[in-house]
């Protein structure tokens, strides 16, 4: 269903997003002070239409406040709906972002468990950088897949491995940005989440492990990273970030994250919680 408070608009609406100019003082990599002092800047504050689609996908017809409350069948139905809606939007959008926000600290405004889908007419910078890293690694290794090779090493070391089954693996990422951050990765590279059917069982185990570790489902953000339109070398994954702390002035001002729980420790505690 359409979101009642969409951040994207249809083509006839007036919503816009700010687009930094390449030579502005905020974005120039060479000399920001000199760039910002230039006399003629015809488009210093440039915008572009924020056209697209913003949907809500309800997790279950019965009331549940978190994905962790769903049984296996309900979670399977919710994930299948995510895939179906991403597939429905992927042809026209440059990138389709699906996320789940649970709890006020995570940005949720409704208590009933749901996902949000945003079909974007551009590829976000972070996604574009990941696409480039995947492509560069594939060329440099003559066919290697970055996240697949990383996962092989994580399974070999086991320091940050939380659980694994025949379809996917669950890890606390190297240099995790926040405490108990989790990443679900299919065991072989597949570009698009919407074209795959793996990982739902392990996702349920991940949510259960977090609920067991914290005596109830923590507030969290979850998002699906799938391939942008036109990308062939990519590896979809699901990230889960419990909201256990607050980003303060250092993190916001520098872009450098402080994580008070090492991913190796978090993985050990979640392994115990998941029973792996």
Relevant terms:
20% strand; alpha+beta; 276 residues; single chain; eight-stranded antiparallel sheet; 2 domains; 10 strands; HIT family, subunit A; two-stranded antiparallel sheet
Give a description of the structure.
This protein is of the alpha+beta class and 276 residues long. It has 2 domains: 1-50, no CATH class; 53-274, HIT family, subunit A. It has 7 helices and 10 strands. It has helices at residues 32-36, 72-90, 125-140, 146-157, 200-213, 249-254, 263-274, and strands at 16-19, 46-49, 53-58, 95-102, 114-120, 161-164, 168-171, 182-186, 220-225, 237-242. It has an 8-stranded antiparallel sheet with strand order 3-5-4-9-10-8-7-6, sandwiched between helices. The protein is globular.
What topology emerges from the helices and strands here?
Layout: E1 16-19, H1 32-36, E2 46-49, E3 53-58, H2 72-90, E4 95-102, E5 114-120, H3 125-140, H4 146-157, E6 161-164, E7 168-171, E8 182-186, H5 200-213, E9 220-225, E10 237-242, H6 249-254, H7 263-274
Antiparallel strand pairs: 1-2, 3-5, 4-5, 4-9, 6-7, 7-8, 8-10, 9-10
Helix pairs in contact: 5-7
Largest sheet composition: 8 strands, antiparallel
| Total tally of structural domains | 2
Number of helices: 7
List the helices and strands in order.
Answer: EHEEHEEHHEEEHEEHH
Q: In percent terms, what proportion of residues is strand?
A: 15-25%
CATH topology of the largest domain: HIT family, subunit A
């Amino acid at each position: 269903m359409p979101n009642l408070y969409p951040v994207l608009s249809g083509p006839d609406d007036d919503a816009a997003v700010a687009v930094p100019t390449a030579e502005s003082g905020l974005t120039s990599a060479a000399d920001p002070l000199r760039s910002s002092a230039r006399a003629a800047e015809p488009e210093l504050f440039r915008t572009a239409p924020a056209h697209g689609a913003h949907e809500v996908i309800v997790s279950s017809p019965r009331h549940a406040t978190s994905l962790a409350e769903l049984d296996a069948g309900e979670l399977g139905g919710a994930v299948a709906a995510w895939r179906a809606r991403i597939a429905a939007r992927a042809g026209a959008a440059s990138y389709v972002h699906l996320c789940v926000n649970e709890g006020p600290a995570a940005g949720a405004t409704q208590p009933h468990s749901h996902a949000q889908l945003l079909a974007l007419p551009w590829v976000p910078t972070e996604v574009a950088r990941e696409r480039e890293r995947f492509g560069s690694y594939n060329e440099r290794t003559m066919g290697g897949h970055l996240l697949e090779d990383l996962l092989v090493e994580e399974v070999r070391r086991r320091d940050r491995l939380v659980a694994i089954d025949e379809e996917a693996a669950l890890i606390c990422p190297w240099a995790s940005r926040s405490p108990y951050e989790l990443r679900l990765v299919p065991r072989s590279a597949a570009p698009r989440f919407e074209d795959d059917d793996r990982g739902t069982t392990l996702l349920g185990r991940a949510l259960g492990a977090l609920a067991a570790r914290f005596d109830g489902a923590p507030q969290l953000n979850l998002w699906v990273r799938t391939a942008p339109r036109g990308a062939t070398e990519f590896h979809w994954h699901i990230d889960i970030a419990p909201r256990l702390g607050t980003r303060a002035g250092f993190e916001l001002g520098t872009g450098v994250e402080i994580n008070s729980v090492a991913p190796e420790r978090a993985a050990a505690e979640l392994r115990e919680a998941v029973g792996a």
